From TrEMBL:
Main location (coarse class): membrane
Source taxon at top rank: Bacteria
Record's keyword terms, sorted: Membrane, Repeat, Transmembrane, Transmembrane helix, Transport
Spans traversing the lipid bilayer: 7-24, 30-49, 56-74, 94-122, 134-154, 174-194, 404-421, 452-470, 490-510, 575-595
Identification of the protein by name: SLC13 family permease
Annotated GO biological process: potassium ion transport
SUPFAM superfamilies referenced in this protein's UniProt entry, alphabetically: TrkA C-terminal domain-like
Phylogenetic lineage: Bacteria, Pseudomonadati, Pseudomonadota, Alphaproteobacteria, Sphingomonadales
Pfam families: CitMHS, TrkA_C
Length: 598
């Protein structure tokens, strides 16, 4: 073994030790490893930053944007409500989520299936007041297992199919992987159903400053437009349809105020005073296509500004506190004519210890009230200063914005179809999908960038050249030669098990495609030396390369859930090591049963 090969392996071992120690954040550890590799010369300066342009970085970043747009659409939330009424226990919900993502991964790329269903897990966790970490890592592992079932589920299957074609003239077909993959998927689901408790319960994504705000709920004023699903509902039916997430304190019709009696039927142009948490209000208003009071006036103002050659900039909402001495203190929004005088629209109010029922325009504001103001974001700081309001810490608040319902799902479906058919590379398809959801307004650029886990992308960009040093220094060839020597002394089933175990051990450091490229020739050599057919050895290579349950860096799915789940490096092995052993113990006899050696 040469000095460069020894240094490459030593740096990888040191990197793993730092990850497990946890003294530094994962992206800092990756940067330290890259600097060390540069210092000892196993990574050339010209190759130091090639990882930032790698397909994996593009896929993970794009998937985070697409996932945020899917969550923003509300489609998943509606499906979740139907499931949530029937499945209420956490472990049953985990089984539904993991099973769904696994089945979807057999049809489309597993990273796409996970990105599509992650919003459901986040909403379900929030509704049950549990950490999303309970669902996300099991879903990632289920996505990896589901990808084993078909040719298009994961990249190693496609590469192994080509390797078989080169050796025998016949590739693996679409469902040749299904018998082994399906059995492992079912066994994995059963394991995850009970073993999810191995995940530490205190794992949560880093809290934002906005989440520290103790705001009990808002009151907002909306109008029922023509064609709204709320038209014809009774008040009680309206509240029941939205699972009691909001309250209705007043109903105004033709200028007359009335109490919202349960059997009162809602009509077009009714004005409703609704109360609830911001996300609940947003869901109700979006799903029933309700219109904020004053929204039409705002649109007219925008049209006038455009006709005069002005621009309104990006429209958004800001939470602010009415400060002592504010212009709003002791005044009403209607009396101040906020839209005409200041270019902002008051769309919600929160007041501690009091349930507001008056129209927003007629509510006398007090010091300490929390208000939601809508307007052009580029001018909002000046407007808040003029009004004497203090902006609150930034948080994910979307009151007053519109949702694109099926558009993000449609864009993601097209991207996954194109990749499944092999017409477009995964990175290109996902990058284009992320661009489309922003260009079509399904998610604003500001929200898109906010939802990208930049430390994860930095970690990947730094680790790729470090991991690639195994190949460039020839260390992977040395490891492969050693495995070949060991395998010749083993029985056939032992050689298959060794290939499976070696592929599972290597894939965290080489990406799964590179693992197959390294291991497939070794598998073929085993088969030839022992006088057996190659299918069992190639299948073991595909299964092992597709099953990284030990680290967050070996597969994009594991990396995708690292930030939202708030996991640490060692958490993956806690849940994943027994699953890896299960795959090894079951996978070897399953492969030999469905793919005989003779």
């Amino acid at each position: 073994m040469t000095l460069s090969q020894t240094l490459s392996i030593a740096i990888l071992i040191g990197m793993m030790a730092l990850f497990i120690w946890g003294r530094f954040r994962y992206d800092v550890t990756a940067i330290i490893s890259l600097l060390a590799a540069l210092l000892v010369g196993i990574v050339a300066p010209a190759d130091a930053f090639k990882g930032l342009s790698d397909d994996i970085v593009v896929i993970v970043g794009s998937a985070l944007v697409i996932s945020a747009a899917v969550q923003r659409s509300g489609v998943v939330e509606r499906a979740l409500r139907r499931v949530g009424r029937r499945v209420t226990r956490v472990r049953s919900q985990l089984l539904v989520l993991a099973g769904s993502v696994g089945v979807a991964s057999a049809i489309v790329k597993n990273i796409g299936a996970l990105a599509m269903l992650m919003p459901a897990s986040l909403q379900m966790a929030k509704k049950n007041d549990v950490s999303p970490s309970v669902f996300l890592m099991p879903m990632s592992f289920a996505a990896l297992l589901g990808g084993l079932m078909t040719l298009v589920g994961t990249s190693p299957n496609i590469i192994v199919s080509r390797a078989r074609e080169q050796m025998t003239g016949e590739p693996f077909g679409m469902f040749d992987y299904t018998p082994v993959g399906f059995c492992l998927f079912v066994a994995g689901l059963i394991y995850l159903r009970f073993a999810y408790r191995l995940i530490p319960r205190d794992r949560r994504a880093a809290a934002t400053m906005g989440e520290a705000l103790d705001i009990t709920g808002y009151v907002t004023e909306v109008v029922v437009p023509t064609g709204s699903p709320a038209v014809g509902d009774t008040v009680q039916a309206f509240l029941d349809r939205h699972d009691g997430e909001v309250t209705m304190t007043q109903l105004l019709r033709a200028g007359m105020r009335s109490a919202p009696l349960p059997d009162t039927e809602l009509r077009e142009d009714d004005t409703l005073i609704l109360g609830g948490q911001p996300d609940a209000l947003e869901r109700v208003i979006a799903s029933d296509r309700l219109v904020y009071e004053g929204e039409e006036r705002e649109k007219s103002q925008e049209r006038r500004e455009k006709e005069q050659g002005g621009t309104t900039g990006e429209i958004g909402v800001i939470e602010a506190v009415v400060n002592m001495g504010s212009r709003l203190e002791g005044q009403t929004a209607g009396g101040l004519n906020l839209q005409r005088m200041f270019g902002v629209n008051l769309i919600a109010i929160s007041r501690r210890g009091e349930r507001l029922s008056r129209r927003l325009a007629n509510t006398i504001l007090r010091e300490g009230d929390v208000v939601v103001l809508q307007g052009a974001l580029d001018t909002m700081p000046d407007r808040l200063r003029e009004l004497g309001c203090l902006p609150l810490a930034e948080r994910d608040l979307r009151l007053g914005s519109k949702r694109a319902t099926w558009l993000p799902i449609s864009i993601l479906a097209v991207a996954m179809f194109l990749t499944a058919m092999g017409w477009v590379p995964v990175a290109v398809a996902f990058f284009a999908a992320a661009a489309m959801v922003m260009a079509t307004g399904a998610i604003s650029p500001r929200e898109a960038y906010d939802n990208v886990e930049w430390p994860i992308l930095i970690m990947l960009g730094a680790l790729i050249p470090v991991s690639d040093s195994l190949r460039t220094t020839g260390a992977s060839d040395v490891i492969a030669t050693g495995l070949a020597q060991v395998a010749t002394t083993l029985p056939a089933w032992g050689a298959v098990a060794l290939i499976l175990a070696a592929a599972m051990a290597v894939t965290p450091f080489l990406n799964n495609a590179a693992t197959v490229l390294v291991m497939a020739p070794i598998a073929a050599q085993f088969a030839g030396d022992l006088g057996y057919r190659p299918e069992a050895f190639l299948m073991a290579t595909a299964v092992g390369a597709g099953c990284d349950f030990l680290t967050p860096i070996g597969h994009q799915c594991n990396t995708l859930v690292l930030g939202p789940g708030g996991y640490r490096f060692g958490d993956y092995a806690r849940l994943g090591a027994p699953l890896s052993a299960l795959v090894l113990l079951l996978g070897t006899p399953l492969i030999l049963f469905f793919w005989p050696l003779a």
